[in-house]
Design a protein that fits this description.
This protein has helices spanning 3-12, 23-31, 50-63, 92-108, 113-127, 164-167, 171-178, 195-208, 215-218, 243-246, 262-276, 287-295, 320-334, 351-355, 378-388, 398-416, 450-460; strands at residues 41-45, 68-71, 83-85, 88-89, 132-136, 153-156, 188-190, 212-214, 219-226, 232-238, 253-257, 302-304, 312-316, 339-344, 364-367, 391-394, 443-448. It is α/β, with parallel strands linked by helices and 468 residues long. It has two domains: 3-295, Mur-like, catalytic domain (UDP-N-acetylmuramoyl-L-alanine:D-glutamate ligase), CATH 3.40.1190.10; 302-460, Alpha-Beta Complex (Protein-Tyrosine Phosphatase, Chain A).
Length: 468
């Protein structure tokens, strides 16, 4: 099977929808030879921040010299982004080999698109002889296909309202679903956040006998400050009595991350604690490993600059929490710069809750919809923008909305910089005409669904890096 045929087959499985049933997945793993038993697994769930936390932990593990498998979802542009070994996407040839070898097993049990992705990653990690694998949960936890593994450590990032039509419409119900990844005797680590969610997670851990720690129980985070463009510096100090447990100096440790925003500091801290928590990983990275891993950590699509020559950031989010943390992070980053916001979203999300916090940053917004059957309607998105207090313009495609914003940024910047770079044609990037965007000029932010970011990448002729 050729690589393009393998990808076409995998993407075609989307038509099978979602099946919240682990029995088929367990039978398939048996027939695959139980690849998940060949290496320790860390499961990472949450409503917001689970991808960032999981990728940061994978970066730390790589820095410690461990061969690391990392499964995440969804992808931005290339299916191979979901399956990374030592930070590098699985090769097209390896992907095709896995599909050719195991397709019959997947079809025997009619595995869904997501289930096949999990199964494929587990066999690929076995073939690559990884030392450890970090798996990002897709939906919830209890009935997610990744939960057919037996983790050595369970991590829960921030819990909030999302997928309420499946997981439940209260924080307690959602948290119970997330707690489905807990195991008796296996350490659980949870992010602080909504009190009802944290309380429920603790109760569920206690009920099954999983030792449970929260980030706030273990450390204090101090001195958060910028450390360069889209980089942050902060200091971790142990809570009273926790220094010996974590082997963390009482006066703390300074860390730097390749990401922006206080919320990413929280996610990085959770990843650092996951690496160091006793009783979890068989080979715990040192604090030096933690520092090295976080310093080079990048996670595409989360307040990420897709092209260094453009005054442009991408950020994925679609619920109230995501809107709030994006607004806070941008407020800290903008420093008075004008903002041109381009947003598109899919259906069954909290459009108003996401948009409302962003209204504090700008009175105007450009709206469009991604080209997917899951897109929201124009009426839904316009109503949410109107209720949030925005003046808005509608664009027929994400690419046209993004290009208009970049053109406007170029025109505005040209007033203050005579030799302004030509931002209106992405094909002219890298021709030596520009030293990069004006750090005081207008900033364009493309935000919302990952489908929207995908169209932004494609419009600019970019893809996330093979290596993260």
């Amino acid at each position: 099977m050729k690589p393009e045929q393998a990808t076409e087959y995998l993407l075609g499985l989307n038509s099978r929808g979602i099946k919240l049933d682990l029995d088929r997945m367990r039978h398939a793993l048996r027939d695959l030879g139980h690849p998940e038993r060949d290496y320790p697994v860390v499961l990472v769930t949450g409503t917001n921040g689970k991808g960032s936390t999981a990728s940061a932990l994978a970066s730390i593990l790589r820095a410690s010299g461990q061969r690391t498998g990392f499964f995440s979802s969804p992808h931005l542009v290339d299916y191979r982004e979901r399956i990374r070994i030592d930070g590098r996407m699985i090769s097209p040839e390896s992907l095709a080999e896995e599909v050719t070898r195991w397709r019959e097993v997947w079809e025997r049990y009619e595995l869904t698109f997501f289930e096949v992705g999990v199964a494929l990653s587990l066999t690929a990690f076995r073939d690559a002889a990884v030392d450890v694998a970090v798996l990002e949960i897709g939906l919830g936890g209890r009935l997610d296909a990744t939960n057919t593994t037996e983790p050595c450590l369970s991590v829960v990032a921030s819990v909030g309202y999302d997928h309420v039509h499946i997981l439940g419409d209260t924080l307690e119900q959602i948290a119970r679903e997330k707690a489905g990844i807990f195991r008796p005797g296996v350490p659980a680590l949870v992010q602080d956040g909504y009190a009802a969610a944290v309380r429920t997670l603790r109760e569920q851990a206690s009920r099954i006998g999983a030792p449970c720690h929260s980030r706030r129980d273990l450390v204090q985070v101090r001195g958060i400050e910028p450390a360069g463009d889209l980089r942050m510096r902060f200091r971790l100090a142990p809570r009273a009595g926790m220094g010996e447990l974590l082997e963390l100096p009482e006066d703390g440790l300074s860390l730097e991350i390749g990401a922006w925003g206080k919320y990413q500091v929280a996610n990085a801290t959770l990843a650092a604690l996951a690496a160091r928590l006793p009783g979890g990983l068989m080979r715990r990275p040192s604090w030096d490993d933690v520092a090295r891993g976080l310093s080079v950590w990048k996670w595409p699509g989360r307040l990420d600059r897709p092209d260094p020559n453009l005054p442009l950031l991408f950020d994925a989010g679609h619920n109230r929490q995501a809107g709030e943390v994006l607004a806070t992070a941008l407020k800290d980053y903008l420093g008075g710069r004008p903002l041109d916001l381009v947003v598109g979203m899919v259906a069954k999300k909290d459009h108003l809750g996401y948009l409302r916090p962003l209204r504090e940053l700008t009175p105007r917004i450009r709206l469009s919809l991604p080209m997917t059957p899951r897109a929201a309607t124009r009426e839904e998105l316009e109503a949410a923008a109107r209720s949030a207090g925005f003046e808005f313009e509608w664009w027929d495609s994400v690419g046209s909305a993004l290009q208009a914003a970049l053109d406007a940024a170029n025109r505005a910047d040209a007033v203050n910089r005579a030799d302004a770079p030509n931002l209106s044609n992405a094909a002219n990037r890298g021709n030596g005409a520009s030293a990069g965007p004006n750090p005081q000029g207008p900033l364009v932010v493309l935000a919302g669904s990952l489908f929207v970011l995908e169209e932004g990448y494609r419009h600019l002729g970019l893809v996330p890096g093979e290596q993260i």
